[in-house]
């Protein structure tokens, strides 16, 4: 199994970065994972801003040469792991900008003229590892599970990815946030996960 880890946080001293390290450590020890690539969107200097004009059209985004490397990574991956904080009830703008550009028509899905498109990323799995300041049940009770609905239904199911797992860790700025136990849980999961 090839694993692509996409990390989205501007600080390498953050708790998100600690979770990234546990994803890498567990994945490196997993006999079912043959190769790992890490894409740090901030360190990469990824430009999340969409630009459409006379020279750059939305319908051509699936073949934009500037995004070829990222398309190759997504095509290569059997498992896509996203590590990010939840800010304002959703992933950071940097990650959403990546999604806007990478999950383009002609690459991630194809319109068939009906209600739903044909997902072109079938067979892949996704794991979302996210942290937030608020309590763990905040997205469910206060926001109607908007984060999971956005990621699972509006994005991944749309492009053909049915296997989506979430780790949403809340109260992460509290000294009682049980950080070490949650980090260990991520390490153990990735140490044993199968395709």
Task: Provide the low-confidence segments as ranges.
Answer: none
Pattern of helices and strands:
EHEHHEHEEEHHEH
> What kind of sheet is the major sheet?
5 strands, parallel
Helix content: 25-40%
Mean pLDDT: 89
Question: Structural class per helix/strand content?
Answer: alpha/beta
- The tally of helices reads 7
Which term fits the overall shape? globular
**Beginning-to-end CA distance, first to last residue:** 7 Å
- Rg on CA atoms, Å: 17 Å
Beta-strand percent range = 15-25%
Number of strands: 7
Strand order, largest beta sheet: 2-1-3-6-7
Task: Provide structural commentary.
By secondary structure, the protein is α/β, with parallel strands linked by helices. It has helices at 15-28, 41-44, 68-76, 93-102, 138-141, 146-156, 179-192; strands at 2-7, 35-40, 79-85, 109-110, 118-119, 125-131, 163-169. The strands form two sheets. It has a five-stranded parallel sheet, with helices on both faces. A two-stranded antiparallel sheet has the order 4-5. Helix 1 runs parallel beside helix 7 (179-192). The protein is globular and about 50 Å long.
